[in-house]
Amino acid sequence: MLTKLIAFLTFLIVASASLKTVYQPKTDLDCPDQEIHDQCLTECRMDYLDCLANCESSYCNSECLLSFQECDASCPCGLECPAGCQDCPEHPLCEDDCEDAQINNDQYRLCLNQAVFQLDVCLKTCPPDMSCHDSCYATYKEQLSDCPCIETQTTTTEVSTATTTTTELTPIDPSEVSILVILWDLSASYLTSGDGSSKVAAKISAPRNDYTTVAKHALVNGQVHIFGGSTDNRKIAKLNGCAFVELSARLNVDRDQHSEALSIQSGSQALICFNSADSKSCEIFDGSSAVTTFESTYTHELGGLGFYQNQPATVGCLQNKHKKAETLTSTGWVALPDHPEALAGHSLIGLDDNSMMLLGGWIGGTSQTGIWKINENVWSRIGELTQSAGFGSAIYTGRSIYHFSGSPSPYPNHRIDLTADEEIKEVVRIGNHASRYDYPVLFVTENNRCF
Asked: What pLDDT sits at residue 128?
């Protein structure tokens, strides 16, 4: 028995050595599915050894080697599938990898989240031009078509002698959205899914743990930037990977918890306005320097900034308790209809239909649940949050608005799902914070960022 075992092990060693000698597979490929490739290659090698064990001639040995070469080439990341499962989704190992890919396949989820994020940025920064929106969706489809496991349905319509092909894409589920939530206590920051089912700690570094306290944030050239805040009212810093890096550029005016910031000009600039000194001042940061621009007609501390009819807009004021709303045009600030209530501490979100939504806030010392919309210069109360919320931050992605509250207790976080026509479909509470965290920095990102 021992003699047979030694003979078999000797055979395996000789066979493996022979395989390495006569066949050198290509190994310089950057394999996106390395684990699947390794599993496939192991199966090919085992089949090769089984084949050799039944051979009694050199011709048979050659046939075994040829079968192995064909098997290896057909593996994900082999010569016939250099891009992995993306090139051969029908491979049995790839089919398993794509089952419930929205849950189990990290590469698909990462690719999807990146495409969703780019679409969101593109749509929010488009001027009132349908060609821009069409271009955003076209780019999104191109990006999504490159994702592993993506399935498309094609329909053809005959027009004269031409054929038009369209691709229908699966709607995005909130569970596929990943939001980085950076709190003023950086050690409490986290990543959460859009449905609130997943929440993991995120590691964010900065010169000090309270670096983002009451600083306002906006995207500039695709990167999160923060402006002012209690640690330095004139600082500008950007999130580089998972670390905040302070820039040499400085704000022209002190910006604190009563200031506001908004990404403008196709995401290439940020508009920063107002402060607790009843300032009407605004400035624009372009990635390298901040330049003063038009002052608003009224003070709007804690009045928010959002897009209305594709132009920056604000409404209300904490100290002066007025109902005034106005929008920034190329020639200065222009009045909008007054809001029915004297609100402050709310969040403003511009919608794709050129309307603007207002979430929560405070009236005097009372926190609010109201969801308002201004459309065609008419304010309407269109819904309610499940609990009152103010001093928070909001972000719009994948036909859902996410609002993370600062106060009052229990510090609720909400998701407002919209229909294709941007009407409220459902308001869902997706969690809450353990304590008060005003104005968290929000960023839609990949689901493994800053672990």
From this structure: 72
Give pLDDT tens digits for 350-401: 999 999 999 999 998 999 999 999 999 999 999 999 999 999 999 999 899 9
Which residue, 336, 353, 377, is CA-closest to 128? 353
Rounded distance between C-alpha atoms, residue 67 and residue 162, angstroms: 44
Backbone torsions φ then ψ of 134, nearest 5 degrees? -60, -40
d(CA 382, CA 370): 8
List, in order, residues 6 or more apart from 210 with CB less than 8 Å away. 184, 185, 186, 230, 231
List Cα–Cα distances, 416 to 202, 326, 336, 444, in angstroms: 24, 25, 25, 16
Query: Do the beta carbons of residue 74 and residue 92 sit within 8 Å?
Result: no
- The confidence score (pLDDT) of residue 80 equals 84
Q: Using an 8 Å Cβ cutoff, are 280 and 293 in contact? A: no
For 252, phi then psi, to 5°, come to: -85, -20
What pLDDT is stored for residue 154 in this prediction?
Answer: 34
Count CB atoms within 10 A of the CB of residue 376.
7
What residue ranges of the chain have pLDDT lower than 70?
1-29, 95-97, 99, 103-104, 151-172
Indicate the residue type of 43.
E
| Peptide bond between residue 410 and the one before it cis (omega within 30 degrees of 0) | yes
Q: What is the pLDDT of residues 244-264, one digit of tens each?
A: 999 999 999 999 999 999 999
Three-state DSSP at 200 gives: strand
Question: CA torsion angle for 420, 422, 423, 425 (degrees, to 10)?
Answer: 60
Tokens linked to 342 = 């004297």
Among 45, 230, 367, 440, CA closest to 53? 45
CA-wise closest residue to 423 among 325, 347, 355: 355
Backbone phi, psi, residue 186, to 5°: -55, -30
Cross-strand pairs, 349: 357
Q: At what angle do helices 34-53 and 58-74 cross, to 10 degrees?
A: 170
pLDDT of residue 147: 81
Round to whole Å and give the CA distance between 255 and 230.
9
Q: Note the pLDDT of residue 170.
A: 37
Quick one: fold of 175-444?
Neuraminidase (2.120.10)
- Cα end-to-end span (Å), the chain: 53
Residues facing residue 402 across a β-bridge: 395, 415
Q: Which residues pair with 216 in a beta bridge?
A: 227
